[in-house]
Amino acid sequence: MQNRFAEDTAMSSYTHVLLATDFNEETIEVVQRARSIADQNKSTLSVIHVIEPISIAYAGEFPVDLGDIHRELEKQANLRLNQLAKELSIPEAQCFLEIGLTEKEILRVADEESIDLIVVGSHNKHGLSLLLGSTANAILHHAPCDVLAIRVPKISK
Amino acid sequence: MQNRFAEDTAMSSYTHVLLATDFNEETIEVVQRARSIADQNKSTLSVIHVIEPISIAYAGEFPVDLGDIHRELEKQANLRLNQLAKELSIPEAQCFLEIGLTEKEILRVADEESIDLIVVGSHNKHGLSLLLGSTANAILHHAPCDVLAIRVPKISK
Q1: CA–CA distance, A46 with A115 (Å, rounded to integer)
Q2: Mind telling me how many Å the CA of B11 is from chain A's nearest CA?
Q3: Cβ contacts of B5 on chain A, cutoff 8 Å
Q4: Could you say which DSSP state residue A84 is in?
Q5: Optimal mutation site among A129, A146, A154, interface B, most CBs of chain B within 10 A
Q6: Which residues in A have their CB inside 8 Å of a CB on B?
Q7: Pairing mode, strands B146-151 and A146-151
Q8: Has residue A98 got a pLDDT over 50?
């Protein structure tokens, strides 16, 4: 057979898609796309948000209770994740709120949940650039699966 | 309407997909996937290969004619690109053999051709890691469109 590429179209279907989000306002398009890709592939959609621990350096020199700040961050993140999961019809078991280094947690969950596509937003000014900045190479090079970076349009103010 | 994500499934369709390849043996899966994605989206598929100019440092201290080497590289790359294009049923106008910095040429062609998805392979040991190594961040951050990095399985020897 001359065309060795004609046969396998099933290779591009995914069974478990992981949306990594930082809840930036600009993620709406990314979220829609992740839902759409999962639907098209009839695959499970999971969502992950990673809270990076605040170091003493961030808190400055005056005495603050980092424990309280972390609990508050976690509470707020949890609310937003639940809201997003509800809108995406994602059950609780497919929602991952993790604390740690973004890339490490995304890759750990991707591995443990047998994810075959990680979806992230890409933006060169705000928001999701945090996710795709220093961690982009790590995710790309160490991800056990495909990675789709969705271009988020700039919001002009 | 409660679910703001239910309506727009058309957002995930692409009209012009650009496959960036370095002709590594491991690209077969990436090539198949690019063809499959283009077919599923009924989109145009283009392919790009970038030849990075060899500097004097690579050529060492003995006198060599870099012009000859470049012409030979270009000739060989052209043959492989034609072969790949034939197998993928890509017309000549959609084949881009460029000379320059990989990221710069990919982004230039993506912009000029109104590409909405760049497909690259990712591998952490050989081959396409060259494409995704130092140039990964640049492509992700400056690409005018989505980028799909396809995980290429390691070849054990």
Answers
A1: 9
A2: 7
A3: 31-32, 35-36, 87-88
A4: H
A5: A146
A6: 2-5, 8-9, 11-12, 28-29, 31-33, 35-37, 39-40, 87-89, 122, 124, 129, 132-133, 136-137, 140-151
A7: antiparallel
A8: yes
pLDDT band for position B115 (cuts 50, 70, 90): very high
Please tell me which of the candidates A132, A137, A146 has its beta carbon nearest to residue B148: A146
DSSP B13-82: --SEEEEE----TTHHHHHHHHHHHHHHTT-EEEEEEEEPPPPHHHH-SS---HHHHHHHHHHHHHHHHH
Question: Whole-prediction pTM value?
Answer: 0.77
**B26 — pLDDT class (breaks 50, 70, 90):** low
pLDDT on residue B149: 85
Q: How far off is chain B from A101, nearest CA to CA, in Å? A: 19
Show the domains of chain B with their CATH numbers.
Answer: 12-152 (3.40.50.620)
Q: Which two tokens stand for residue B60?
A: 């060492």
